[in-house]
Amino acid sequence: MSTIPREGIKASEPLRPEPATVLDVITETPNIKSLRLAFDDESLMQSFSFLQGQVGQLSVPGAGEATFAIASPPSQREYFQFSVMKTGVVTTAIHELRAGDRVAVRAPMGNTFPTDDWKGRNIVVIGGGIGMAPLRSLFMYLEDHRDDYGGLQLIYGARTPKDVCYLDDCRQWEAGSDIDFVTSVDT
Amino acid sequence: MKFIAAKKIPDLLGLLARDARVWAPLVPEDSADTLLFLPWEPGAEVDLERFTQVSPKKLVMPGSEPLFSFSYSMAVDCERLEIGDARGVPGAGGASDADGAGEAPGAATVLFGARACDARSLTVLDALFGLEPGEAYNDPLYRARRAALTVVTLACTSCDAACFCSSWAEGPASTEGSDLILYPVEGGYLARGVSDRGEALLVLDIWEESEQPLPELAETDRVPFGTLNTKLLEIFSDMDFWERATERCVSCGYCTYACPTCYCFNIFDEMRGSRDGERCRSWDACMFYLYTLETSGHNPRPTIAHRYRNRIGHKFSYYPENQGTTLCTGCGRCIRGCPVGLDIRDVLRGAGER
Amino acid sequence: MADLVTTIKQTLKDVELVLGWVRDPATGVAAPARFHTEEEAEAAVFDSTCVHNLAVHLPRLKGRRLGIVAKGCDARSVVELIIEHEAEREDLKVIGVGCGSILDVKKIWRRFGYGVEIDDRGDSLELGGERGPREDFLARKCHGCLEADPDIYDLFVGESAGGPAGEISGGREEPHPLSAMLEDLAPAERRAFWREQFSRCIRCYACREVCPMCFCRDICIMQTQVPHWAGGEVNARESEMIQHIRVSHLAGRCTGCGECERACPVGIPLMLLMDEQNRAIEDMFGYRAGDSLRARPPMQTFSIEKDLWGDEE
């Protein structure tokens, strides 16, 4: 566990989050938004690293804190992204955020995918709906390390066409010549 | 061996209270049949005979505590958010101020008159909450309170029908978690230091020497744990058993809140006005429906049987598996105080025979 | 209790299960139980340690055909639950028991130790060898007993008391022991008294969970995050607040069974609040919760048409 980064969590105060700013809000579907964030502390942001599939705790102080997968790849150093479906108290507060608003984050936490063990093999990533969030981070990591792996296939489904997340990414994956992208909807 | 006469106990408490907040078994005003660990003040009469209704765990894990404060303000061009420390927003009537246990983590505290089961429960909690920074989990608030706590244990020469600490190897003779142990003997108490901190207390100018032998300690009921930990996994899906075992349960949180080892908590934000607030941590209990209710409306533990099964499984199967120790020390509070007479030992024995 | 056992067995021919009491072998006192079969019913008992109000289980078992063994005070809760549609009269077989007053087992245990042998001689009490006056250890609700015999029952077991339990009752006129003390206090002192009492509260919600009329339970606003009407912290301020919410929600519904105070592990005199309110409701509306199936609870009865248009249909 010690090799997993925890820069955004103070060893002495792991329960206390770090202030961060909303850089951008992307409306993915009628009930899913993606937030691009950066820690206010610039040196922390510079040293901040995580592994594909790790999670973070996003706070809207006053509403509460909840766990979300980091949806951006480790190579993205300008910001980190959470994709959030509106369901309860915290997620409703998150959906009300706009660029410039302040939040607080404890990250990274949790585990990663054993991507080192996959080297040289064909990889199929299968996800659905908002469950795509950590897989977006993973798949983008795999693309960043394209040479280490064999065939890359992404199978992504959603309940209806309206519920498909990451449309811009999907278009790029579809256009990509060296990846196999399959998408499907239930209705 | 060091000895103190019973009538000099208030003097001892007075000495301890010079450098620390002392918590001892006291009868609250207007409630003669209640005994609780409460802050001792000169003149208060400690009860070293009966058992307390609620464990002293609040000294390391308060009923509520602020984790940090936060404050929104408007700057010229944008909204600002400040994340403060754990002591609350000044003047905002911070968490736990009326509770007494909400003292700053790290303030010197003496727990006086804990029983061996209570003292040992601290080491059981240490297995999870006492880890150092860098280990898997790290709870600085718990560690600060724990490090500042001195435990003066009262050895049990008698017990009641709810006690079952003899189910574990050392039973009432366990010294785990104690700094100093007082043994009731004729006319007073023999004292034995367990830790350096306890030995240091024996230097106080209040002890006499005594030739009295250590008293015989109580022998309580025993629950045969045996292979209960695996048995509980085997009967996990035996809902008939769990439903019958919990028929009289009304799903209150007394057993968990009185328990010296139950540690579940909830974290939530409380606003103090419209711009300031605190993130708080409070006790929570797996016996509550809301404890596992998910945002979607699904509840994986919808019935009392599901919830009680978790309580038993956590204490006697999962925690031993993960932390190497039973999440129970046999203090018997959950039995003594259960409003409907549910005896955890009956359920454990019933599970063993299933 | 051959009579009780026979009656429960008879009832079981008609219902799914019967709520009653068994004797806990470890302590010798009664504990609540459910009898599903005639064989299980053999263990049924009724004695002066049957302090629990079993009506608390009725809302949770709503929709099932049940039997319930009920003392006079418990039957008042059954009545109130039927009025509020949390139990259906036709689904219920009430086995009334003649009650000669009940012991405060918790008080006995806390004074003499858990599991101390209780020998109830009817006129006196022997506790672990010590003999004492029985009145000192009666459940407090018995001091305000309205009638020992249940108001509604399908079958009756034991001896009818023909009025309040034993000779000890002064009806509801008998105030809470702390009532006089509190009445002498100035408002600020009363407030300080309650702050002090609630500073002990651990928010275990035992008061709520043992209350037959607190059937919101899992969605109780004392605990919910949405709506966030009560703060989540464990402190005197919040505990006092949530108890006020509970008390006012029980206005005209509390039957005075005393379970909340009995269950409170830290000895908060909750019935002091309930008694005061019950008395106020009785003075204002002449209503006592649990008196009659035909009564309409004053705080839940209104007539818009009459008030607006001034004439009845």
Description:
The complex is a heterotrimer of chains A (187), B (354) and C (313). Chain A is 19% helix and 35% strand. With 187 residues, chain A is an alpha+beta fold. Chain A has two domains: 18-109, Elongation Factor Tu (Ef-tu), domain 3 (Beta Barrel), CATH 2.40.30; 115-185, Rossmann fold. In chain A, strands 4-3-6-1-2-5 form a six-stranded antiparallel beta sheet. The relative contact order of chain A is 0.19. Chain B is an alpha+beta fold and 354 residues long. Chain B folds into two domains: 1-62 and 99-221, no CATH class; 223-354, no CATH class. Helices cover 26% and strands 20% of the residues of chain B. Chain B contains eleven helices and twelve strands. In chain B, helix 5 packs across helix 9 and helix 6 crosses helix 9. Chain B is globular and about 70 Å long. Chain C is of the alpha/beta class and 313 residues long. Chain C has two domains: 1-102 and 138-170, no CATH class; 175-313, no CATH class. Helix content of chain C is 32%, strand content 12%. A five-stranded mixed beta sheet of chain C has the order 2-1-3-4-8. In chain C, strands 5-6-7 form a three-stranded antiparallel beta sheet, with no helix packed on it. The chains are: A alpha+beta (187), B alpha+beta (354), C alpha/beta (313). The A-B interface holds A 1-2, 11-19, 59, 61-65, 87-88, 91, 100-104 and B 67-68, 70, 72, 78-83, 85-86, 133-134, 136, 138-141, 267-269, 271, 277, 279, 281, 295-296.
By secondary-structure content and strand pairing, the structural class of chain C works out as alpha/beta
Distance between the termini of chain C: 54 Å
Largest sheet of chain A: 6 strands, antiparallel
How much of the sequence lies in strands of chain A comes to 35-45%
In total, the number of strands of chain A is 9
CATH class of the largest domain in chain A: Mainly Beta
Number of helices of chain A: 4
